[in-house]
From TrEMBL:
Listed CDD domains: SDR_e (cd08946)
Superkingdom as given in the UniProt entry: Bacteria
Lineage, broadest ranks: Bacteria, Pseudomonadati, Bacteroidota, Cytophagia, Cytophagales
Annotated SUPFAM superfamilies: NAD(P)-binding Rossmann-fold domains
InterPro entries for this protein: Epimerase_deHydtase, NAD(P)-bd_dom_sf
Name under which the protein is recorded: SDR family oxidoreductase
Family listed: Belongs to the NAD(P)-dependent epimerase/dehydratase family.
Residue span(s) of domain NAD-dependent epimerase/dehydratase: 3-237
Length: 307
């Protein structure tokens, strides 16, 4: 099969393309990315299992003519491209609408006119907004940020495909963990780096805010195993665990006893969001998390050059 991955040079894309390249049933992988995040690490210091399978195409989601050209002969599309700038998810709505909403719309229009048979879209648990109780996919979306709103609009466009092809929407939790193209604006990644090298981290709010998280390797495994056909089309929460920010701090403090932390605007109580993992997803895709959070963070720290 021939696969196109939008945003394939990014954080999730780097991990996903590496796994896809190992599959015998994958003939070609087209990485479609505009490199707006300067994701040059994707191209450096490693080789895929079969380099001949992977090709890079620099392109924009809003360039509909070029996009249609790139989709010729493609069987599967992974739509990962998005504007994600933590913690500024509620500033400059146009910033998110342009890519996450209208860019997704252009991609869906192009896919509708193509021979694509399977479409996989990475959305966000941010579409739920906030909840003190763990939510599942039956809960109506109620995003609280411009980023969340734009991902919800993207889901609406992607859902148009469900009667025409296999369509999967994965609402990912906050992604963390090492890879070559990792994001350092994500909360756990940022904390681990600062704790390891500065021995001090800054906590915004009172630290009791709760979020859902998932390791980068689990995200890539789930996305890859969708190709095996065990999972039905639909919307799925892709999360590992819910944690308070202070839970992350406790783990780091255990590993780095001299760690210091300071609170910024400690009087603020930031919104809560708890999300239920999807058991059907984990079962059908054979996703098993056999490591504790402490073990994951320890492995993460060992990947730094100065460890």
């Amino acid at each position: 099969m021939r696969i196109l991955v939008t945003g394939g040079a990014g954080y999730i894309g780097t991990e996903l393309v590496g796994l896809l390249a190992q599959r015998d049933d994958v003939e070609e992988i087209v990485v479609y990315d505009n490199l707006s995040k300067n994701n040059f690490n994707f191209f450096l210091g490693h080789s895929f299992t079969n380099n001949a399978k992977v090709q890079f195409v620099k392109g924009e989601l809003l360039d509909s003519r070029f996009l249609k050209k790139a989709l010729k002969g493609i069987d599967v599309v992974y739509h990962l491209a998005a504007k994600v700038t933590t913690p500024f998810a509620n500033t400059d709505p146009h910033f998110y609408e342009q890519v996450n909403h209208w860019g997704t719309a252009e991609l869906i229009y192009a896919v509708e006119e193509s021979d694509v048979k399977k479409f996989i879209f990475t959305s966000s648990t941010g579409v739920y907004g906030s909840s003190k109780e763990a939510v599942d996919e039956s809960i109506e979306t109620n995003p609280k940020t411009f980023y969340g709103i734009s991902k919800m609009r993207g889901e609406e466009h992607a859902s148009r495909l469900k009667d025409k092809m296999d369509t999967f929407i994965f609402r990912c939790g906050n992604v963390y963990g090492y890879n070559r193209s990792m994001r350092f604006d994500a909360v756990i990644n940022k904390f681990v780096f600062e704790a390891h090298f500065y021995k001090r981290i800054s906590i915004h709010g009172d630290g009791f805010q709760q979020r859902s998280f998932i390791h980068i390797k689990r995200v890539a495994e789930a996305l890859t195993r969708v190709l095996d056909g065990e999972l039905n089309s639909g919307i799925y929460n892709l999360v590992d665990r819910d944690m308070q920010v202070l839970d992350i701090v406790d783990t780091l403090k255990e590993q780095i006893p001299e760690l210091e932390f300071i609170f910024v605007n400690q009087h603020l109580k930031l919104r809560q969001l708890k999300v239920k993992p999807n058991e059907e997803l984990n079962s059908k895709l054979g996703l098993i998390n056999d490591k504790t959070f402490n073990e994951e963070i320890e492995e993460f720290r060992q990947r730094f050059s100065f460890s």
